[in-house]
């Protein structure tokens, strides 16, 4: 029973770090699956949790009349039953829970704030340790261009063309469409993508070099392509052989549609 209590207390002490990491990683830009039970997530939460707890203890001891009994916390966590003063624990429980709740609120606020400033100033593009653990975001947002080309180049992207090579019963097909959305699997790999305005053709039907490329917006003029019905076309990652991505700004959406497979 004491071992369970110690484990619960330890988890509560780490929880501000977990909340900070969760707040920092979560968001529409991240699309990251947060695995709160994973060992690596808990490991990376220990450092901010230690900082939060140390700051909380120093502030409590120096600016209030309360005293944090670290010896009792240590005894509970290490299951040193004989040294535990349960009367102290019971009397301190409401204040302890309020203390943890305040730390969690502060941790969440700092996590969201840190994420805001990192994204606003694109610090994750300059400092790898700040990067979101999701390379698909940088690919599907166009921010990969800021890594490879000129900072700020991704702001010119207005549409993302995705050409996907898929194995089907009819042979290898190329599905070409506009990226609308994507979702990750539990291990943060790509699970499925959503495309609109989709056309398909057989991979073997390569463009004759002697014929002009009609461009992305006028694929209906190319007899190799068949327009897929429906508003959204979903492709699961396990069916995908390869992906080609083309970033379009307004200037080349209408005038330069090169890059089709």
Summarize the structure.
The chain has helices at 2-25, 39-63, 70-78, 86-120, 123-126, 135-141, 144-148, 250-253, and strands at residues 159-168, 171-184, 190-202, 226-227, 233-236, 240-248.
Q: Can you tell me about this structure?
A:
The protein is α+β, with helices and mostly antiparallel strands and 261 residues long. The termini are far apart. The chain has two domains: 2-130, no CATH class; 135-253, SH3 type barrels. It has eight helices and six strands, in the order αααααααββββββα. Strands 1, 2, 3, 4, 5 and 6 form a six-stranded antiparallel β-sheet that branches. Helix 1 (2-25) runs parallel beside helix 4 (86-120). It is elongated and about 85 Å long.
* Beta-strand proportion: 15-25%
Number of strands: 6
| C-alpha geometry | elongated
Structural class: alpha+beta
Give the mean pLDDT: 80
Integer count of domains: 2
What's the N-to-C terminus distance? 63 Å
Low-confidence stretches: 256-261
* Total DSSP helices: 8
Q: What kind of sheet is the major sheet?
A: 6 strands, antiparallel
Give structural attributes.
261 residues, alpha+beta, SH3 type barrels, 2 domains, 6-stranded antiparallel sheet, 8 helices, 6 strands, 20% strand, elongated
SSE blueprint and pairings:
Blueprint: H1 2-25, H2 39-63, H3 70-78, H4 86-120, H5 123-126, H6 135-141, H7 144-148, E1 159-168, E2 171-184, E3 190-202, E4 226-227, E5 233-236, E6 240-248, H8 250-253
Antiparallel strand pairs: 1-2, 1-6, 2-3, 3-4, 3-5
Helix pairs in contact: 1-2, 1-3, 1-4
